[in-house]
Structures are given as structure tokens and as C-alpha cells.
User: Fold these one by one.
Assistant:
Number 1:
Amino acid sequence: MSTITCRAAVMWENGADLVMEDIQVEPPRAGEVRVKILASGVCHTDWSEPRNYPAGFPVILGHEGGGIVESVGEGVTNVEVGDHVIPLYIPECRDCVYCLSQKSNLCGKIRVTQGKGLMPDGTSRFSIEKDGKKVPILHFMGTSTFSEYTVCAAISLAKIPKAAPLEKVCLLGCGITTGYGAVMNTMKVECGSTACVFGLGGVGLAVIMGLKEAGCSKIIGVDLNPAKVPMATEFGMTDFVNPKDLPEGVDTGAAICALIGDYAGAGVDYSFECIGNVKTMRAAFECVHKGWGQSCVIGVGPPGTEISTRPFQVVIGKAWRGTAFGGTRGRTQLPKYVAKYLDGSLKVDEFVTFTLPIDEANKAFHLMHEGKALRSVVVHKHEGDEEVAAHRAAHSGGAGGSGTAKDNAAAAE
Ligand code: NAD
Ligand code: DAO
Ligand code: ZN
């Protein structure tokens, strides 16, 4: 195994645009795997997290990737060369106190080094030649999928069926799995429940997909943007509340509770906050049913912010919960989610609004901020690579050539 030179989108300093560079990727060490990444979804966290990224710069972002194992380090047994994989920003070691508890997916095995942008042995596999010197580049979230090749801990890879198009199922590496998993794993929503979803972006739609599958009797969506309504309705939303359109004196919570019943304490059985705003977190919490309602925080609030409510809201039996990656144990559950996608029972293609070459990763961020993209997928070129060409030929004649992505983009205009 030798060092590979390949293309990657690099963030050189805090908040700067990404720059395409030729970088070096060292071979995997013990317990590590080098992965050829074909595509990566572009998520909010790729934008927000590197603002003041504590680990430093330069860094290679990206955490919603799909790829093929290129080489494995000593002692790796869970994947082999040629396997198709989704990198996991929450690993699954099956050995730490969290994994063994079966109560949480927050595997702690490599948390400290991952937070520092390093591999578990405390070093980086990425570097770049600048002025004749080798400059190390940091990893991000243990995944760094904005590089043609990345190195991950073996416990951070979910092996998935080869029949799935990597340019689509890469999205199961974060947003879709988070929303769907929040319903199925974290909240375990029962058939016949009522629910409310704040924020109808990619995560919110994935929540709605889960709520519909769970058999909810009412699924209320809340968003400031009416353009989100048609797709949310297609996914299973039954009622919509736009806070901007409410009559004077009626707040969002009151409007939601009124859709459930005209009695004291009426509210939804479950609510989900998929925005990342502490005000909507409070509204989502307070609109759940007295006595048993539960609210799940999914959105990541800005650093330094706090949530609040009157303590009596808790005294009367409302519960505040939260979820990371939808409570999903990646290595165990992602292969099953991909199988559900393949048998048509889990939507993924519908989330892809734009497919762009990796060189246009900055444009993908702009589309995200303009509210035009549920998800953009950026695709690595891998010029002359027959394995990649064969995979793309088997799926819609090439990355970005699928009718679904184009149709979704047209619908988003
Ligand atoms: P998105 O921007 O695509 O969607 C957010 C939606 O909220 C948009 O439709 C927007 O119009 C709406 N919105 C914004 N402000 C609003 C307000 N005040 N009231 C009502 N609607 C409002 O974002 P996304 O990709 O769906 O992600 C949602 C959140 O989930 C983000 O905070 C993201 O960081 C977080 N997230 C968390 C996890 C996790 O593991 N917990 C994983 C992935 C994403
Ligand atoms: O174990 O303490 C821990 C942290 C695990 C990582 C949780 C990440 C949750 C949210 C990330 C936002 C979307 C990618
Ligand atoms: Zn673990």
C-alpha cells in the first residue's frame, strides 16, 4: 500500500470557501480503512461546525459519504477491499460502555481523537505539499468525505449492499437516518399517535417519513416557507401551520393544540424540532400533550444558546428528549436502511435536489442557504477509474444523470 495523491476540497481557514487541491492520503494503519469516496451529501453541519472548528485548519469536511473500500490496515475484519460502505460520524465499536449498554448509540471509543480532527493514534493521514514542505490536514467528524480518498477507523464504517447507488444512499450517512431514526429508535412512536414536526427541511421530511410508516393519525408540519408544503404533503404531512399566517393573538403552539382537541392540556403525543432554534425548541416542547407528551430536539442550536421553559411544564408530565444520528447504531442498522431503500420502503432519491461535481461544493452551500436544496450531493470525478465508471453506469447512466435529481431541482425552483 502506498500514499495516494488525489483531489479534495480543503477549508484553509475559519469559514473560508473550500479550495480544490491535490492532497496526499497515507495508507491505513492498524484498525483503519482507506475508502474511495464516490459522493457526499452536503449538510448544514459541514457549514456550521467548521465556523471556529476547535481542532483547527486546514481541514477536509464532509460527513454524508458513500464509497468503496480501497485498502485495509492490520487487524481489520469487518470490511474488505471492494466492499461498499457509508462512513459513520458516530462509530459503533460494540465494546465500549455505550455500545454494551444497548441504551445509546453514542459510542465513545474514538470520541476524543475524532474531536481533535485526528485518527485514533493521534495523527492525520492527510497532507499537502506547500513550498516544498508537508503540511498536515485535519480530519473532520471521522469521515472527511469531501476527499476522493479518506481514511476512517474500521468501527466507523457501515458495510452496505452493493446494489445501492452510492450517489444516493450517501445521504443515509446523516440527515435521512437522523430524522427517520428519531421516530423509530429514539421516540419509538406508536401507531395512532399524533405528531408535530417543526422545520420541513431534509431532516423534518425524514421525520415525517418515519411518522407515516409508524401509522400516525395526524402529522402536523410547521415552517415559515410555504414552498415546503407540497413535498411534505407527499411524504405524509396531514396539516400545516405557518407561524407567519396565524391570526393576531394565536401563537404556533395554540394553533397546533387546537388541531388536536378543544380541552385543557390538549397537544400532540410527539413533537420534533428540526430547525436548530431555541425558540422553536420551546414551542415544540410546550405543544405536547399534558400528562404524556414527549418532544425530541434534533436541531443543533447555535453555540452558547440555552433552552428554557417553565418548570411546571415538566411537572405536568411533558418530557424533553434529544437524538444524535437518530439513535442509530450505524454498523448494525444502516445496512437494513439501505435494504429498505432497495425494496422501495424508504425514500432516498426524493431528498436529492441537486447533484454537482465536488468542484462546486461552495455552490452547494449557497443553494443550502437559499433554502433551495433539501440536499445537494457532490460527486468526486475519479477520472479513468473503471470501478467507479462501472458503478455509475449501473445506476442511471452516471452520477447526476438520474431523472429524480433533475426533477427535484426543477420542483425546487
Ligand atoms: P434545513 O435548513 O434544510 O431545514 C430547516 C427548515 O426549517 C427549513 O425548511 C426552514 O424554512 C425552516 N425554518 C427555519 N426557521 C424556522 C422557524 N423559526 N419556524 C419554522 N420553520 C423554520 O435543515 P436540515 O438539514 O433539515 O437540518 C435541520 C436541523 O437538524 C439543523 O439544525 C441540523 O444541524 C440538525 N441536524 C441534527 C442532527 C442530529 O444528529 N441531531 C443530524 C443532522 C442534522
Ligand atoms: O458522543 O458526546 C458525543 C457526541 C457524539 C456526536 C453527536 C453529533 C450529533 C449531532 C451532529 C449534527 C449533525 C451531523
Ligand atoms: Zn462503542
Number 2:
Amino acid sequence: MSERTVSVQDAAQVLRPPLDGLPYLRHDRAGELSLDGGALAVADGRIAGFEADAGAALQVDASGCAVVPGFVDCHTHLPFAGWRAEEYEQKVTGVPYEEISRSGGGIASSARAFAAARDEQVLAQARGLAAEMLSHGTTTFETKSGYGLGVEAELRALRLAGRLDVPQTVVSTALLAHAVPEGYDADGWLDAVEAAVLPALADMPHVRALDVFVETVAFDNEHLARVGRWAAAAGLDLRAHVEQFATHRSVPVALEHAARSVDHLSCLPPDDVGPLAAAECAAVLLPGAEFLGGERTAPGRDLADAGAICVLATDANPGTSPVFSLPVIIGLGVRRYGLSAREALLAATLNAAWTLGRSDELGSLEAGKRADFLVLDGPVESVAYRFGHNPVAAAFVAGRPVWVRPDQAWRVGGAT
Ligand code: NIG
Ligand code: FE
């Protein structure tokens, strides 16, 4: 009997893809995900199969529970320093984001906080938030730079992301065009990035993608194209914050540059739904930012019906979405876009893992994949329905229980 064997039995539902080896599943096929009851066996950190293993070292009682892949949060802005609660009050009482941003708040204010914080403070805040994410089922997450707003500060943010040292898999993105730093214009800042930040990425294997924020207060479509050319030349993925507060017709530009994802999409015009849905590019929906920012609702239902690779993510950041719980995001996404439970879970697992370039290993329950999975305290339909409740009874990373909700410890051989 190996010490690293686990048997999860009597689950009411086990979420599985229609076929093994799918890199992603387009949303018009989400209904093919199966939810039959059953078991899951783990050996040496990997999924061994879907039969109970009576001899396994750890026995998990999943009666009445759903077993699903660990959640993958493919869009967060960790690490950052401090919070911006006062801005939220300004926003809800009627001051627009652009005005807050132009008067020195917004991203610039987080950059000042980042500059003032010591490395250990930034890391401690990020690790605390990663623990909160783990307790809500996130077993893989993305980090972004973008609160540095200076060459050295952006490099510092990327290096700190590489030092997080948390139980989750962490994949980093260099958001090098987030806001125009003081003393630069947009082109001048990108010149500085090209000269001094891009070359340093070669020594940072945890950085897998470049990102850019297209908005009137930030960068435009030509800058998006420039970042796209950098990404292609460096063998990195292109990701882009687009169509958040207004329509800029950025999606066609992103698709021309083979973007891996376009994120936000609250102001996506109807003409861009079809081409995005047909492309090999994830449509990353961020309902936390939409809800808390009073933004428009992205056409999530239309994208799903048209067969897009839809994704749900937190956009966890101190400004637009200080939300770290994917169950909350799933609840918002289901309500705002009109998604089924299968669609929402697909968007927070396999398709999110593909967005990070990791779906060969993560994001679905398949024999041979890493045993990152969750035992939920009810059926998958409850995740959105019991809005605000944490449904995660236990979270496993590579077959090890890394979070067990105290009232559910009896299920996991008494582990706490
Ligand atoms: O994804 N849109 C740009 N970036 C972040 C917000 C950044 C901030 O306000 O701190 C976002 O919403
Ligand atoms: Fe974001």
C-alpha cells in the first residue's frame, strides 16, 4: 500500500470531460461534460482512475458531494500592496473610474503603495490571499505585474511573483502596459519596456505571457499590436484587457496577433462575438469587476452559444475586483451571463487551464493528470445557487489534502 494513494468514494457527481486529452472544450459543447456519480483514485499525485481503491492510504467519503477539478484562476493581479477601499466608496457614490484614475488614484495609487512596501510585506499579503484562494478551491492561479510603473519596479513585481512559494501552481504574466507611468508618454514607456524589461524576461521562466490594458486612460490598439509582436518574438502568449469601460474594437487586433485570451469584454460589440468565438482565443469574463465597478455585462451567453472558449476569473486586484473566491465569481457569472453549472465549471477549470497553457496537466479529471481536485459539499448546481457560501469541503493538490473545512474533516480520514 503506497503512502501516496487516495480513494474518494460514493460521490454524487464527478465532473468529467467527454473525452480525454482535450486542450479545451468550446462552450457550445459544455453539455457533454458528464456528472455521473462515482469514485476517484489517486496514486503518486496523479489521477489513477475512477474506481474506488479499498487499499488506499487515505479514504475520502464524498457521499452527497460533487468531485470537480481544482479551480484555475487565470486572471489575478497578485502580488500587490495594500487596498483601495476609499476609492470603492467614491465609485459607488458616483465618481467614474476614469476620474479617479486621472486624479492620481487607481493603478498609480497601487504603484505608490507597492513602492513603499518591503518585499516581505508584499509577499506576506500575497501568501495570505493565496491561502484564502486555496480555501475557496483555487489550486492554480495566475499573477500579473503592472503595479510597478517603472522598469525596476515591474521587474521586482515579476521576481516577487516567482518567490510566492504557495501550495498552488502559479503562472505569471508580465502586464507591461497597464498605466502610463509619470514622466513618460505611452510610446516612451513601451520603448523603455522594450529596452530594459523584455530582455530580462528570458531569465524568468515562470513568466509565460505578456498583457496590455487597452482603454482611454491607458493604451490603444497600436500598443496592443506592439505588445503582440513582442510576445510572438519572445515565444510568450499574448493576453489583453479589452473592451472594459468602452468599445475600442480591440478584439480583431488581438486576434490578428494570435492572442491566447481577451479579458473583460463588457463592451464587446456584437460584430466581434462570432470571430472571437471561432478563434483559438479564450474569452475571459470577469463578473466581479463588472459587478463591483457597475460595468456593462459582457455577452457571455452569446459567446457560449457561438462556441467560444469561455473562461471565468476573479480579476483579483485592489481596484476593480478585490474578490478572491471563484465560487463567488461562478455565482455572479451564472446569474449575469445565464450560464449552466456545467458551463460555469468548465470556464473555471479546463478552459482556464488552457488559457495559462497548462491544460495538458491541469484543469480536468482524467487518468494521468495531476490530482488537483475538490470535494464540494453539495451538487455542482449549488455553487452558484448558494451564492456567497464556500462550497469547498476539501481541496487536494497533487493528491494531498491542502485544505479541509473544519466541519468536513470527518470525510478525510479525520484530517484537518
Ligand atoms: O483588470 N483594467 C485594468 N486593470 C485592472 C484594474 C486595475 C486597478 O484598478 O488597479 C482590471 O480591472
Ligand atoms: Fe485585470
